[in-house]
Amino acid sequence: MASLSALRDALKATITGAIPELHVYDTVPDNAQLPALIVTPRSAAFAEAMGRGVDSWEFELVVLTQYGDPATAQDALDRFVTGSGTASIREAIWNNRSLGLTSTHTYVAAMSDYNARMEIGGTEVVGGKLRCLVLTTD
User: Fold this and answer.
1) Contact of 56 with 126, CB cutoff 8 Å
2) Before 35, cis peptide (omega within 30)?
3) Taking the model in full, what pTM does it have?
4) Rounded to an integer, what distance in angstroms lies between the CA atom of residue 17 and that of residue 15?
5) What is the pLDDT of residues 23-62, one digit of tens each?
6) What is the CATH number of domain 4-137?
7) What are the sequence ranges of the domains in the chain?
């Protein structure tokens, strides 16, 4: 069964391998190079089935692009949060659902907080969150 650290590393490697222009962080950075994705654990459920045979992990994949012109910023964000395409995070994970690990199944289930504006390291950014579910077994 994959550990939390192994899952974060695998998510980073999978997304970076598929979308090299996206700077992926498996821990929350003090300052992020844009465009960026930050892998953050949200929750976990142990003993999901078969007498503790399945662990279920939920991650928030926080996607950030530089804010400037609203239309340009949203177009940049759209490329990463859409369901398919060369820069689609969802498609990158769908094409490697195991994340290169044994007994692991991963998928992007939802998006929230689209067009959220914030400041990171003095830079105004716009972002959205993808909910990523990972099931791992013994």
Assistant:
1) no
2) yes
3) 0.92
4) 5
5) 999 999 988 899 999 999 999 998 665 566 789 999 999 9
6) 3.30.70
7) 4-137
